[in-house]
Amino acid sequence: MRYISLVLTSTTTARRTAALVNVLSQETTTPDAVAAVLREHGETGPIDLTPADLTAMRTAAGALREVFAAPDTDTAAEALNRLLRKSTGRLRLTAHHGTTPWHPHLDSNDDAPWGEWLLAASCLALAVLIWDGQRPPGGICASTACENVYLTQGSGPPRRFCSRRCATRERVAAHRRRQ
Ligand SMILES: [Zn+2]
């Protein structure tokens, strides 16, 4: 059971998706590390993640990575459509028994397992981002030392790195190569 008390927007949900995909992609990740990311993104209640939940969430994260890996909007939309066809339920509205405003969900029910929830909530958020932005919703860090995903943000030149840290590391490496 989840206790997310506020209804996140598509952007905040997508931010949570990116953070979860990143923590779940680390080979050494633990249920505690995943729970910490969930708390950072609005989860307020006790989080009971079993090893089976973790495995299912990792599978979902792997599937979502394909959307981030898409080089252009059409490819991202097609990758998302494949997931929507195969791996999510129908669009439905829920108010979590009167505890939240009505909002859309793509999982089969409010107590769906964590893996199903992650994939469904992420697909919904990424679909809205493509709809709103008409551009790929994110990307994969261009640093060879990093596999993090990131979200497309704002206007301006497309970003290539997940973080300032990775951008700096690559700039320093390129500078060394030139010398
Ligand atoms: Zn990076």
Main beta sheet: strand number and arrangement? 2 strands, antiparallel
* Small molecules in complex: zinc ion
Rg over alpha carbons: 17 Å
- Spell out the helices and strands N to C: HHHHEEHEEH
**What percentage of residues falls in helices of 4 or more residues?**
40-55%
CATH architecture: Orthogonal Bundle
SS field, number of helical segments: 6
DSSP strand (E) fraction? 5-15%
Could you characterize what this model shows?
With 179 residues, this protein is mostly helical. The chain has a single domain, classed as Jann2411-like domain (Jann2411-like fold, Orthogonal Bundle). It contains six helices and four strands, in the order ααααββαββα. α1 packs across α5 (114-133), α3 runs parallel beside α5 and α4 (73-86) runs antiparallel to α5 (114-133). The mean pLDDT is 91. It comes from Streptomyces beijiangensis. Residues 140-179 form the Zinc finger CGNR domain. This is CGNR zinc finger domain-containing protein.
